[in-house]
What does this fold into?
Amino acid sequence: MTEKKRVMIVDDHPVFREGLKSLVDRSVRYAVVGEASSGEEALRKIEALQPDLVTMDISLPEMSGVETVRLLTERFSSVQALMLSMHQKYEYIADSFRAGARGYVVKDAAGGRLIDALDALCRGEYYLDGKAQQEVVQQLILADGQDVVVHDEHYGLLSPREQQVMRMVVEGSTTREIAESLSLSPKTVENHRANLMKKLGVRSKMELVRYAARLGLIDVEQWKE
It folds into this structure.
């Protein structure tokens, strides 16, 4: 009989961890060997338990799941990370894969797709949840036009990070969500937001949204919805 792949579950919600553990342990190919509720705890246990796969929540206390995966990838190159998140926005997905994650599953679909995702990672493949795929495709379609539309003297004064924060603000992300996605502190996000608004000469979020709409960075009708 083939030895089961060893899985660690990282999530700060005990009930969700228990649900994932039940799903994994019912499989004939996988077994849960450990759990963690924070990034720091996860890194310690990974070193001790040496799992083959780790399921990682993005929203963790103190250190985000994205940053944890980045450190995991640097320290334990043989461990495959699968990101589980309630977020479907492109920024979260892109940052997760850039950090070293091999797969991304939206939490409310985890029950039906978790084992498929683990199977894909074991085959050496990337896995992207079908719900998340729609967001990625939409962003790729829009990306072709953005470089053409954005030719603005003030926008050009923004650093790449400030442009990134601006886009997330006008798309409706909260300071906490932006901080978790970009692996920054909320205070740093607030500083970026204040600096970019000063450079653009806007005084409120509504003015910032109008400015972004004029540049073609957002669809005003979609934002109203």
Notes: The chain has a mean pLDDT of 84. DSSP finds eleven helices and six strands in the chain. Strands lie at 5-10, 30-36, 53-57, 80-85, 103-106, 127-128.
